[in-house]
Amino acid sequence: MEAPSGLGGAVPVPASQAAKKEWRAIPEHSFRSNGSEEQEHVKLGQSAERTIHEVGTGSRVDYCAITIDADDAESNGDILQQKLQEIMRQREELQQMEIELQARAIARSEILEVQNSFEVQLKEHMNINADLKEQLHEREQSILELERKLEEKDRELRAMKIDTEAHRVARETILFKDEQLREAQSWVARVQEMDALQSSTNQSLQAELRERTEQFNQYWIGFQRQFVEMEHHHLQAIQQLQLELAEARKKNGNYEDGSRVSHENSTDSSSYNGNQINVIDGGKSNGHLGFASNGSVDGTSSHVLSSSSSSKIEHAPSVPVVP
């Protein structure tokens, strides 16, 4: 665009084009020959000098020229110098502003990159956080499952402890019963030994008793036989003496004595019959002799019996009596 001609040739530039604004003073011939070349110097006193304003975007550059007459140059040199200094100051400010804007743009791009990377990292972190939450939930579920299994194991362990205690008590009871059984078996063995000893002793005693009983029975039978023989001999002697006595009494004619003798004969015969019955029984029913009922005859007959039978007793075999 074109700036108004005059000494104060400051051209305002919009704020959107402040980053590409620059003031230059170039000679006319250089402006004609090389429009794209940049020279930054001012030559006062030359007839052909221009102050241009370059506004460019990319490779396109627009130039605005201000024509200054040579006659006015000397009078307006100081003003131009001041304007130029002001322009230079503005240029520096604009350059500083451009640098700041570039820095801001760079910073903004970096901030955008950082923000993008942060967003990417945030998304990654959110995904990781979601994964971690899911893993944490799974871990919590697994922990709950493990706690449940641990409780079950604790219950099983308590049950096993109770069973073990019951088994221990049962084992102790069994051991105690076994000990009692061994004691009972030993006691039974001792009792059996005592029974066997007693039975053997009883058998030996019974055998000895049978032997002694047989011996006693034999001795008793022999004694009874001897006694029967002696009694029979005595009866024969008594009968003979009675006959002799009867003959003697017949000679004397004593009737009373004859009746008395007959009575004694009947008594002796009954006593003899009792002795015979006792011998046949073997002495089992009564140990006393049957003739004890007729223990004595009259004094004469008993004296004769003892005197006449003394010879027979001397010849009888001796019989030992076992207590």
Automatic annotation (TrEMBL):
Polar residues: bias regions: 267-278
Biased composition (Low complexity): 301-311
Bias (Basic and acidic residues): 254-266
Region (Disordered): 1-21, 254-323
Coiled-coil region: 70-163
Highest taxon of source: Eukaryota
Keywords: Coiled coil
PANTHER family in the record: OS08G0543600 PROTEIN
The protein, known as: Uncharacterized protein
Upper lineage: Eukaryota, Viridiplantae, Streptophyta, Embryophyta, Tracheophyta
